[in-house]
Specification:
Distance between the termini: 36 Å
Number of domains: 4
Oligomer: single chain
Structural class: alpha+beta
CATH architecture of the largest domain: 2-Layer Sandwich
Number of helices: 13
Strand content: 15-25%
Largest sheet: 5 strands, mixed
Shape: globular
Bound molecules: thymidine-5'-triphosphate, magnesium ion
Number of strands: 13
Helix content: 25-40%
Length: about 350
């Protein structure tokens, strides 16, 4: 049986800012535009304290300011959010290689091949994400993407919702149609006129009628979706642009031997995968993240595409030599890029 997990980070941009600025805790925080509510711009997100004042994503900053003048308004720092996004997606890939990256703060993971109860996997993922990012997320698990995404939204924040077979009538049908992926405000308004408000009511409309209203393709989609049916596969990237390995130390280290030893091991693993998959690489990049989360990379280009361990390890050590290792290191990684198929 298929098992799909959906993760959505809680109040994502705001949570990243709260983690960086602990003094923001328990204050209403609004992220949007340049962070100046007297200037044009919309709310990207607000933390839960600010949402209590009615502040929502996509609302003009000026409106948010009127609703809660004492909220803290901050500018969008996309670079930082993208960096944290990569960190939590990396955690997901540690659990299963079949991951679909859907947005800056959400992703699907195929759990079908994992031999552990759903709840346990979800708890482990939440713990790991919390440990490496300091942030909470909400997880939904179900037989397909459609239901997993609905589930992750059901108990926000810090939620964990598992939709079992047979739960569709009891837990999905009472929800408003808008909760279905692919039902936007227009379809919602149209359905209201029928009148169809809940997913259960939608499921009671005969297929021919739906096709009459919405055409063959979308009509069939709504018919299946209202029954919790969805066979769409996870969209992953099959052709790798690069092969990489990285590790976060249990304890931050400034011990050169430890860093170099790990780099040698990771390079060995990456080269093994390179060979197994029949590639040669043209570039080698080493990544170091320091204990203040500052991340640096140093790269080198090989004379010829290679899959030889000696050559690639030498290149990796050449890169390592280009770092100024003054601070403690929390993560070291290596990436072999410029891949060509043999
Ligand atoms: P969401 O997951 O929709 O929202 P959220 O993570 O802030 O809150 P929730 O706990 O309800 O999941 O979106 C993720 C991020 O995307 C959000 O933090 C900011 C950004 N975003 C915008 O920039 N504009 C928008 O209109 C929305 C909805 C989100
Ligand atoms: Mg979110």
């Amino acid at each position: 049986m298929r098992r799909v997990l959906h993760v959505d980070m809680d109040a994502f941009f705001a949570a990243v800012e709260e983690r960086r600025h602990p003094d923001l805790k328990n204050k209403p925080v609004v992220i949007g535009g340049s962070g100046d509510p007297t200037r044009r711009g919309v709310v990207s997100t607000a933390n839960y304290a600010a949402r209590e004042f009615g502040i929502r994503s996509a609302m003009p900053l000026m409106t948010a300011y009127k609703l809660c003048p004492h909220a803290v308004f901050l500018a969008v720092d996309m670079e930082e959010y993208a960096r944290v996004s990569e960190v939590f997606k990396k955690v997901l890939r540690e659990f299963s290689p079949v991951m679909e990256d859907v947005g800056i703060d959400e992703a699907f993971l195929d759990l079908s091949g994992i031999d552990k109860p759903s709840e346990q996997i979800a708890r482990e993922i939440k713990e790991r994400i919390k440990a490496v990012t300091g942030l909470s997320c909400s997880i939904g698990i179900a037989a397909n993407k459609l239901l997993a995404k609905i589930a992750s939204d059901m108990q926000k924040p810090d939620g964990l919702t598992i939709i079992a077979d047979g739960d569709v009538e009891g837990r999905i049908w009472p929800l408003p149609v808008r909760k279905l992926w692919g039902v936007g405000p227009k379809t919602e308004a149209y359905l209201k006129g029928l009148p169809v408000n809940t997913i259960g009511e939608l499921a009671s409309v005969p297929l021919e009628e739906l096709v009459g209203h919405f055409g063959t393709s979308y009509g069939h989609y709504l018919y299946d979706a209202s029954r919790g049916l969805d066979e769409s596969p996870l969209v992953t990237h099959w052709e790798p642009k690069s092969i990489s390995r990285e590790t976060t130390f249990q304890k931050d280290s400034d011990h050169w031997q430890t860093i170099a030893g790990n780099l040698a091991r990771l390079t060995g693993e990456a080269v093994t995968e390179l060979k197994e998959r029949g590639y040669r690489g043209k570039s080698v990049t080493v990544k170091i993240r320091f204990n203040d989360f500052k991340t640096q990379t140093r790269a080198t280009t090989l004379d010829d595409p290679a899959d030889n361990l000696e050559i690639i390890r030498k290149a990796a050590f050449h890169c390592l030599g280009k770092f100024d290792l003054k601070k403690k290191v929390r993560l070291v990684g290596v990436r072999i890029g410029g891949l060509i198929k043999l």
